[in-house]
């Protein structure tokens, strides 16, 4: 909806099509298959996407369609598809504003295994020199298979990156989100904080290491003692990416997932390993 007016106003704008495919093999330890979005189960994951950028060197309009198939070994397979439309406006030499609308089907969320959603997010990017700061805010409308429930899911986010060199950077991310559903047991508020360090090992290979911490409290889920459930997740991770050829990447990703709750029944510790081959066009 954002894109239509821009295209109509600038019919002679240049266009840049793009796309890609990827295939991943994912292992998730069996002890952690329940109650966490980070350990969704061992699977083969195939993804494809295609898009177009209009006026890629100016106030860029981007439209992208993607589809992902999860072939699980121990649970029912699922498809997830998404459509995104984004408008970027350059407001100065170092300042960019973007507005993105999206819709997705059958996505995995903390509160539900099969969720359809539509959302909008606005972001402001400021990039003086080697620094990049992003401030964002948005909301999502979610529809769940369970009890035909619906929710609003607003969020705010911030990101800071310091560029040390080519593919060499430090990044900090923070995000606060809320779920407000017509079925109270789905409601929660969550804070997520992350730090990442990326550096090149050689011309074609780079290493990314990081730590994510998430903590949340459920509005209508309680411990056996009657206290409101509060949970946290620690996620150390390391990723190795190698450019094997023109537009071809190989990637190894390892994560240790530690989930703790004030209700011991929901404690989880597990490992997630993924190997991915990715081709872009």
- State the end-to-end CA separation: 26 Å
- Model regions low in confidence, pLDDT < 50 over at least 5 residues: 1-10
The overall number of domains is 1
**What is the CATH top level name?**
Mainly Beta
The largest sheet is:
15 strands, antiparallel
Describe the structure.
The chain has one helix at 2-9, and strands at residues 15-28, 43-54, 61-72, 78-90, 95-107, 115-126, 131-144, 150-152, 155-165, 168-181, 188-200, 205-222, 228-245, 248-261, 268-280. The protein is an all-beta fold and 281 residues long. The chain has one domain (29-37, 82-280): Maltoporin, Chain A (Beta Barrel). A hairpin with a 4-residue loop joins strand 4 and strand 5 (95-107).
How are the SSEs ordered, and which strands pair?
Layout: H1 2-9, E1 15-28, E2 43-54, E3 61-72, E4 78-90, E5 95-107, E6 115-126, E7 131-144, E8 150-152, E9 155-165, E10 168-181, E11 188-200, E12 205-222, E13 228-245, E14 248-261, E15 268-280
Antiparallel strand pairs: 1-2, 1-15, 2-3, 3-4, 4-5, 5-6, 6-7, 7-8, 7-9, 8-10, 9-10, 10-11, 11-12, 12-13, 13-14, 14-15
């Amino acid at each position: 909806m954002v894109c239509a007016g821009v295209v109509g106003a600038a019919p002679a704008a240049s266009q840049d099509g793009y796309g890609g495919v990827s295939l991943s093999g994912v292992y998730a330890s069996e002890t952690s298959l329940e109650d966490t979005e980070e350990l969704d189960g061992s699977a083969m994951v195939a993804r494809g996407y295609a898009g177009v950028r209009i006026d890629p060197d100016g106030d860029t309009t981007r439209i992208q369609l993607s589809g992902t198939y999860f072939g699980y070994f121990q649970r029912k397979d699922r498809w997830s598809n998404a459509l995104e439309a984004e408008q970027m406006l350059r407001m100065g030499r170092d300042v960019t504003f973007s507005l993105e609308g999206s819709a997705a089907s059958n996505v995995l969320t903390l509160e539900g295994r099969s969720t359809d959603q539509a959302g909008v997010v606005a972001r402001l990017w400021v990039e003086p020199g080697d620094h990049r700061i992003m401030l964002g805010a948005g909301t999502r409308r979610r529809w769940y298979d369970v009890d035909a429930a619906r929710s609003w899911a607003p969020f705010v986010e911030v990101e800071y990156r310091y560029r040390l060199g080519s593919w060499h950077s430090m990044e900090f991310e923070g995000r606060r989100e809320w779920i407000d559903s017509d079925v109270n047991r789905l409601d929660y508020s969550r804070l997520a904080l992350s730090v990442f360090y990326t550096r090149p090992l050689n011309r074609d290979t780079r290493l990314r290491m990081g730590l994510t911490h998430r903590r949340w409290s459920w509005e209508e889920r309680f411990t056996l003692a009657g206290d409101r459930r509060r949970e946290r997740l620690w996620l150390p991770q390391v990723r190795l990416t190698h450019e094997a050829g023109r537009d071809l990447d190989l990637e190894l990703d390892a994560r240790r997932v530690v989930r703790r709750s004030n209700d011991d029944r929901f404690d989880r510790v597990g490992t997630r390993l993924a190997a991915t081959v990715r081709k872009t066009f």
